[in-house]
Every structure is written in structure tokens, then in C-alpha cells.
Amino acid sequence: MRRHGRPVRFIGCAVLALLLAGATLPVSVTATAADWQIREDTTLASDFAGTIKIVRDGVTLDCDGYKVTGEGHGRGIVVDKRSNVTVKNCEVDHFSVGIWVSGTTASTFVDNYVHHSIRGP
Fold this sequence. Notes:
The protein is mainly β. Helices cover 12% and strands 37% of the residues. It is built from one helix and 13 strands. The protein has one helix at residues 6-20; strands at residues 28-29, 35-38, 42-44, 48-49, 51-54, 60-62, 67-69, 75-80, 86-88, 91-93, 97-102, 108-110, 113-115. The protein is globular and about 30 Å long.
């Protein structure tokens, strides 16, 4: 009987669909998706493969020492036209640009480590 495994796959697909649609996970998260939009204070609970975009002002992203990993192109963490944002304790690896900051004011970037990327912050 294979019916027992289907609800778990459905839930996994539903979570992935929500992430791709721009939904956020609870404050302490385990996530794997290609692109994730952060709208509230967030602390990673595991490594993340893909780009994290902060899309609201006043948000803190605490990677808690976990990695944000790419495939050698694109941007790792994106903070574009925001204010009062904090990005801390992140290890960003294998992007063209590790941390992209543009048009952003009154924000803090502390204890982040960017490597194997063409450009950092």
C-alpha cells in the first residue's frame, strides 16, 4: 500500500508552492527553494540553497551561522531600496554577488562571510 506516503509528498509540494509564491515560513525556519522573500524577522535553522530577498523595511535576517549557497551566478542575499534592515551571521557562498545592497538606508550588516563569489557586499 503506497497511500501512506502521499500526504507527506502533498504537504511538501504545498510548502514549496507557497515559498515560490512569496509566502514566508515562521520565524525559525528550515527552507530549501530557489528564491525566498523575507517579510518578517527570520532566523535560519539550516542551510539555504538559493537567493534570499528582503522585501520589507525593518526586517532582521539572522542566518545563525548557516550558509546561503548558490550555483556560481546570481545574488545570494538581496536588500534593494529598504531601510532599517539587519543581516547578520550569514555565510554566503557561490554567487556572482554575495550580498547585493542598493538604495538601502539606515541598515546594519554584521558578522557576514562571503566567499567563492565574484563580489561581496
